[in-house]
Amino acid sequence: MCLAIPGQIVRWLRRDPPFCEAEIDFLGVRRVCNLSCVPEAQVAEYVIVHAGVAISVMDSAVAHLLLSELRSHEHEVNGAGLGELHE
Amino acid sequence: MKLIDEFRDPALAQQLVESIRGVATRRWTIMEVCGGQTHGLLRHGIDEELRDVVELLHGPGCPVCVTPTTVIDHAIELALRPGVLLTTFGDMLRVPGKHRSLMQAQAEGANIQMVYSPLDAVKLAQELPSTQVVFFAVGFETTAPATAIAVSQAEALDLPNFSVLTAHVRVEPAMEAIAQAEDCRVNGFLAAGHVCTITGYEQYHKLAQRYRMPIVVTGFEPIDLLVGIYRCLQLLEQGSFDVVNAYTRSVRPAGNLAAQEILQQVFVVADQPWRGLGEVPLGGLILASKFRGFDAVDRFALERTTVAVEDECQSGAVMSGRIRPTQCPHFGSRCTPQSPLGAPMVSTEGACSAYYRYSNLVPLNTSPAS
Ligand code: SF4
Fold this sequence. Notes:
By secondary structure, chain A is α+β, with helices and mostly antiparallel strands. In chain A, 18% of the residues lie in helices and 37% in strands.
């Protein structure tokens, strides 16, 4: 039920809440989704979509930082680093 | 896709398993709150792989499972009325009500259509002006904004033939109900990543301190789940009751403010009966008075549900971590996905369905099929 999947914004279609809409690309399949909860989202950014509504803009930079920390075992050296990127 | 495959990387997963073993000096008990996490853990065999260092208990995070039988019976009753089209998520269709499920009612002529989004139900109401379109709305804070947007759209469009039958629930009060139980065995929580995407996690600090349990906001892919477990064990070993975000690419400390504003316009917090768990104080969301005109209970003069009727299903014990699905006397015998006694056996987030589906576990070091 809480399943949500990332997709990339192709183009905005409407900007008036609660009808904000954009075309989103999910691995080549395009769907129109509601963007009322992420009015700041920009074309080419990834959004996480649940039940036809984007619930967040994915922070790709933070995701890559976490992955590189994990790969370099940095989490074992300074354990506190993981998961505190946003705090 | 980038940022999906990386979070399923088998080599990285194996490395994290070793880190987890390295950090644990004893076996801890952790509850993953969301049913989506339960399915991820079982699908990838993570619970089996880590069995010696961590016992994973499955939490209440299956909104389909906690929807009271009486609300499902209301939905069936509405779908059988002439001129009504009941719309809902596919997950709800096979959940047993008192006597039957929506799918069984459909075979008897009930007018039911599965939708992917509540916004599709609004479109149907526009296309079918002489039909009363009811959206049967279930879900946690992750899903409630979609319902709120649908109701706002219906209001803006002045749609007289759209209404919602709501059973929206809130996660935090359910976590509190579990934490405060005298026989609670949970040492730490993995909080539900997509719920926290909406609500944030600042409010969890009080809960963590009061019940002396660390809380780690966790995602759904194998790497997310392993990082969540790693961080939770690390906090437990340090004796820390902190709240940590391990799903940083989606969750911000204060959550999604635009979504919260939409929720606050349309819904108010209320006590709510949960199937299997009983009345949960402040456990649900109901339509604010301004939007009561869109409430199917009022529009169709249904009786408001105030109690969750208990049934033979042991879902309450499963969802609060008291028993494992396989310890339910009905598991696999009287209760199967083909003939379910309770919702956890059919919901895609139900713990019983996860045990039934993934009993042949896939080892963690092989590439997941999905
Ligand atoms: S096995 Fe069936 S009856 Fe038992 S708790 Fe699960 S859903 Fe309920």
